[in-house]
Amino acid sequence: MATPILILGLFALICPLAFPSYASTLQDFCVANPNSQGLMSGLACKDPMMVGANDFFFSGLHLQGNTSNPLGSKVTPVNVAQAPGLLTLGISAVRIDYAPWGLNPPHTHPRASEILTVIEGTLYVGFVTSNPENRLITKTLQKGDVFVFPVNLIHFQYNVGPTNAIAIAALNSENPGVITIANALFGSNLPISSDVLAKAFQVDKMVVEDIQNKF
Amino acid sequence: MATPILILGLFALICPLAFPSYASTLQDFCVANPNSQGLMSGLACKDPMMVGANDFFFSGLHLQGNTSNPLGSKVTPVNVAQAPGLLTLGISAVRIDYAPWGLNPPHTHPRASEILTVIEGTLYVGFVTSNPENRLITKTLQKGDVFVFPVNLIHFQYNVGPTNAIAIAALNSENPGVITIANALFGSNLPISSDVLAKAFQVDKMVVEDIQNKF
Amino acid sequence: MATPILILGLFALICPLAFPSYASTLQDFCVANPNSQGLMSGLACKDPMMVGANDFFFSGLHLQGNTSNPLGSKVTPVNVAQAPGLLTLGISAVRIDYAPWGLNPPHTHPRASEILTVIEGTLYVGFVTSNPENRLITKTLQKGDVFVFPVNLIHFQYNVGPTNAIAIAALNSENPGVITIANALFGSNLPISSDVLAKAFQVDKMVVEDIQNKF
Amino acid sequence: MATPILILGLFALICPLAFPSYASTLQDFCVANPNSQGLMSGLACKDPMMVGANDFFFSGLHLQGNTSNPLGSKVTPVNVAQAPGLLTLGISAVRIDYAPWGLNPPHTHPRASEILTVIEGTLYVGFVTSNPENRLITKTLQKGDVFVFPVNLIHFQYNVGPTNAIAIAALNSENPGVITIANALFGSNLPISSDVLAKAFQVDKMVVEDIQNKF
Amino acid sequence: MATPILILGLFALICPLAFPSYASTLQDFCVANPNSQGLMSGLACKDPMMVGANDFFFSGLHLQGNTSNPLGSKVTPVNVAQAPGLLTLGISAVRIDYAPWGLNPPHTHPRASEILTVIEGTLYVGFVTSNPENRLITKTLQKGDVFVFPVNLIHFQYNVGPTNAIAIAALNSENPGVITIANALFGSNLPISSDVLAKAFQVDKMVVEDIQNKF
Amino acid sequence: MATPILILGLFALICPLAFPSYASTLQDFCVANPNSQGLMSGLACKDPMMVGANDFFFSGLHLQGNTSNPLGSKVTPVNVAQAPGLLTLGISAVRIDYAPWGLNPPHTHPRASEILTVIEGTLYVGFVTSNPENRLITKTLQKGDVFVFPVNLIHFQYNVGPTNAIAIAALNSENPGVITIANALFGSNLPISSDVLAKAFQVDKMVVEDIQNKF
User: Fold this and answer.
1) Are residues D121 and D188 in the same domain?
2) Which residues of chain E neighbour D126 with C-beta distances below 8 Å?
3) Of A53, A83, A168, the CB nearest to B138
4) By CB distance 3.0 to 4.6 Å, which of A77, B200, D82, F177 could disulfide with A130?
5) Structural contact between residues E207 and E198, judged by C-beta atoms closer than 8 angstroms
6) CA distances from B94 to A208, B77, B167 (A)
């Protein structure tokens, strides 16, 4: 049987969350309603009398994420799909695990700034400012260090130590979104024309197609 | 010599941050300028060419806070006063330490919701909804548990275990503010008339004055 | 038969108003639909062709509120539950009556600033700033005086004259909410642990329980 | 000697208030600084330690406005120019006096919705919705009646009784602005070409020039 | 058979768009759902998996609008009713055609600023600032000139050349709205009392009624 | 002698515009002050009495941009640096010229959605949705076609015809910003570690360094 969390996950997937964070200016909170029947449902708020502590709760952020993948990193999110009470509140959290030399690759959050705290390990992190400067701002972080990634700028974290690393980060949206640059450009469904990518990156089309084949 | 951080702290203290988070809709970021001469200063943004990684950085969140106080708790903030690059970004973080039976007492954040992750220990946490229901929503949290406190609602965390507890929390404002209810009501400068407090709490004025004397 | 106002009241009660004031950036107005069937209803906007003047209207703010209660005050609201046309407009009004020595006790509005005009009588009013200053800002107001309470700060009004007092106030939300501090702390449903309250107010648990028994 | 209030009035006049209401998301309040030297001044926030109750205060809304003018109405405002503490708080108030048959003529507030309470007298009020419907929504109000004018819609109040009328209204901006339609169209400085106005109102240019001569 | 565009048009007409632009802070986009059954429908977002390029597309802005009307101008809009993908994105466009001496008469957009580019011809354009200055800001524009009309201010464009003129303009709302001043005042349904209009414009009631008869 | 426009350009460059669009909720407009002395200047608003039509004006959007560059495209902006009256108004415009096979390469606007109208030629355009779908939404546009690019999503336009193409686009920010993906990743100052880029794109470091050498 699908649990409420799973149904909500589905809901979040097929039903873009149409109620903005600003709705929190109109009520104490608005808990996402897992029984909303997708696109034809009604208000996405659960009856406040049926709301309980579990709507504001998530368990498991002490557990190590599985980093057995080409990038060697794993993001465990706690956003509105995991904690429905976050709807309209404009905040969420993630745990990020990094294998040795693991990379959280260049990406943007289209709807949030991020503040990251290193729990274990050593991370080389950075972000790039917009045109025309495209300045790279970088720092190597140790346990207890905190770093900020401004909204919409391309950023990354790279585990430069020989041991696992762990970070906890927060983002100021309950559904911040992620655009992994390499995937969006070279792994989109359908693919972007290789003419476009070859010209944009000033490489041969064969190089583009090689990269596309890996995504 | 005053360090930049100290100057900024002073700046933040005497010069309420007048540039809203929404300013981030107009630039990549706006780093608070520690050399702004208080109230008669100019724009609070540092020259972006002078901005560096340290503006987005804070060190020390792995260090235990000093909980030797009557409440047995200590909040270590990382907001715009510590990391000037947070200005306009709408997010900040804190570490909270709790001695055994330590209490982060009932308070509100006038400008932020909060998402809290337990790093160590066991916390009994809760918040109360607005009138007329005033429902108490509570949960006992263990390591790895996450809980959400909606903006402006009165909330608290209480260490119900015999060992120290640690939490890391994030708030969706770079200057979320805190109103500790007991201090604001019974320890304000100047004191609220004991007639008002006695009537509000339906107690004898002597009880009010006893409490006021402790704050 | 339930009147539309009553149905809307119910609607407002069980269905937190999920459409923010900012929706007024998308249409002339959005009148709350009293026939929305609670949580499973559709859009909360009434057909604009069915909208009439009564949606923007409330009658009775010249009538004295009943102040026969322990606090000696009574708030008569005109918010979105009374005037459905206020939905999305970000404003509402109240009349407050005060018996001699009547108190509108310390409270916050989690979603609005307030501007208050004294129509009759003499009021001692105040608000307290946030930590660490907790400054009390007070004034004794006469007929025709206006005072401002900033959003989310604890504030009160106290009738210090021997006659009835009347105020009209406005708040910049159509559903500003109220958190009466004493009720939220000592009268919540379920009660906050007396351990927490005793430690927060630095009083004996018996004092806490005495206060809780009155709420 | 100019009083601080007068200086602030001047300040407000020549220096458009550049700090938005949303700034209240970054501090308890931001009181307008009367000593800011106009356009070349610094931050418009007064040192919070210098802030006092008078910054949030205005006296005189019980006094009758002078309605000896062609329209027979007078608006007495309490906005940020009168109460500097309103800066960033997003609310203000007005008293409106109407002589018998006095008119507050068709106008818009470019930055606020309005909620109006009749204190004395009988008012015929209305607003017109946007294109293409241009529906007129009207009501005749008595003492104690409340009416709402949605943001940016053209509205008016007309005293249809033989006695003076009084209203108190609030607007959800500390500087809501007013555009009196007749003045903006026929009394602008410099005048709009009479060709434009004649074509827009489908009247002879002589009619336009007659009206322009009166403004 | 009604096309989706037509249904959406109807939807937009009877169902004020209740989802604010700020919703774009919660998802990539929210395409208006043409099958939403008016007021009793569910969420106004189309299933993102069903979204296609046509939702973000409009064809025909190269076609001349029909200016055979008393004003000699025609606005062809591309807002959320024409391109449902604009929902929540806060932008739209129009093409405006002007016959020789054609006028886009004085009007306001209650929810948007406008930036206009002249494609062909010569336009005398202007806007009027709010009270008390009511300054007229005007310019005569040629091909390739760009002009800005600030939100909510009364503005107009007048073709002062002997040939057709064309402009393309954009507005920062997906449903900016239009209030044509002359129509709202003299052509409303029902009419505004001629007493009100005569007093407001300081003209004889017969002049008012003459104008009303033309609208 | 530096022209005001040039000074403003410098101002815009070194002084991130700290006054958000929301400031337009507090005044009719706020024209950027070209004489503000950079970071130590005062309020960025020009005295409204000194404001004139030229503050809201730009000339030259009928002129062809120079596309003699490797990408074969040229963007001519009209934002707050060119038209200072746009400050706080939340809108701007661009003309884009494309040589045959010219490309406006994959990029994001960190602060705006975009609506584009084809004036001449044939453009293949597209954007990619966020993780995990990364759907490519594309369309081939002809003269008179309009297309929408949602805020923060990666998008591009490619001239697939043998002739020049021209588009006019608008963005809902007066300073929307641009992040050209290839430049930010491979041409940043200083460069991103080739380890990071090689792992992110799953290519050999030599491929990364080849690309970096071209930027």
Assistant:
1) no
2) 192
3) A53
4) F177
5) yes
6) 44, 4, 8
Q: Is residue F122 part of a domain?
A: yes
Of E155, D12, F200, the C-alpha closest to A106 is F200
Cα of E51 to nearest chain A Cα, Å? 11
Q: Are residues E78 and E141 in the same domain?
A: yes
Residues 6+ apart with CB under 8 A from B27: B45, B48, B88, F16, F17, F18, F175, F177
User: Which amino acid is it at A166?
Assistant: I
Same structural domain, D149 and D188: no
Residue of A14, A39, A111 lying closest to E26 (CB–CB): A111
Q: Which of C83, C63, C156, C162 is nearest to C121 (CA)?
A: C162
pLDDT of res. A13: 23
Do C164 and C103 belong together in one domain?
yes
Q: Please, are residues F172 and F90 in contact by the beta-carbon 8 Å criterion?
A: yes
| Maximal CA-CA distance, chain A | 61
Give the three-class secondary structure for E6.
helix
Cβ-based neighbours of D85, under 8 Å, separated by 6 or more: C148, C150, D29, D31, D32, D51, D55, D56, D57
Residue C66 has pLDDT above 90, yes or no: yes
Query: Rounded distance, CA D24 to CA C148, Å?
Result: 14
Dist CA A194 CA A186 (whole Å): 9
Look at residue B92 and tell me if it is in a domain: yes
Tell me: the pLDDT tens digits for F139-183?
A: 999 999 999 999 999 999 999 989 999 999 999 998 899 999 999
- Helix, strand, coil percent values for chain D (each to nearest 5): 25, 30, 45
Which residue of chain C comes nearest to B186, CA vs CA? C201
Q: Which amino acid is at C186?
A: F
Looking at the structure, do residues D169 and D211 belong to the same domain, yes or no? no
Q: Is residue F75 part of a domain?
A: yes
| Peptide bond before residue B132 is cis, with ω within 30 degrees of 0 | yes
Residue E151's CATH number:
2.60.120.10
pLDDT over 60 at D37, yes or no: no
Based on the fold, state whether residues D122 and D73 are members of the same structural domain: yes
Pick from F177, F193, F211: which is nearest to A201 by CB?
F211
- What range defines the domain where residue E186 resides? 180-215
**pLDDT score, position D168:** 98
Residues from chain C that touch D92, judged by Cβ atoms under 8 A, are 115
Does D13 map to a domain?
no
Instruction: Sort out which chain B residues have CB atoms less than 8 A from F88's CB and list them.
Output: none
Q: How do strand A92-98 and strand A145-149 relate by DSSP bridges? A: unpaired
For residues F64 and F168, membership in a common domain is answered with yes
**How many domains does one find in chain A?**
2
Check whether residue E131 and residue E208 sit in a common domain: no
Q: Which pLDDT belongs to residue C26?
A: 63
CB A98 within 8 A of CB A159: yes
End-to-end CA distance of chain B: 33
**Are chains C and F in touch, 3+ Cβ pairs below 8 Å?**
no
The dihedral formed by the CA atoms of A108, A113, A119 and A120, expressed in degrees to the nearest 10? 30
Alpha-carbon torsion, ordered A28, A32, A37, A41, to 10 deg: 30
Bridge partners of E57, per DSSP, are F147
Mean of pLDDT values over F74-87? 92
pTM for this prediction: 0.88
